[in-house]
Task: structure prediction
Amino acid sequence: MIEKMTKEHIDRVAEIEKECFSHPWSITSLENELANENSHFYVAYENGVIAGYIGMNIVIDEGYIYNVAVSEKFRKKGIGSSLVNHLVTYGKKNNLCFLTLEVRAGNLNAQSLYSKFGFIKVGERKNYYSEPAENAILMTKYF
Result:
């Protein structure tokens, strides 16, 4: 089940952030995004527990995906696919021109997931990530 993220979800989403990213978003940053009318964040449940989340910002008719994260113990269950599909569906329904994101060059599982939904590699940012240092692959889905 996927639903719009609320303040009640922030503590669990912050836990997932810490688990998944070397530079996790703070609770304050998450709260600020919830207050931003251009940001859209959703959580996914598995057996009554928040298993993952996705967030994006919309600028006019463009969607910029910030984060896609699934707690390690809930991976390989289709949750990431459900979350990405949710934003792709949102993008189609709301006439966005594209959705775009950055992904670690070494995160081949995520790149494969995004490719499944029609995202294509459109560029690369050298040394975009730290801890460990790694390039970012820019991937975009055009509508």
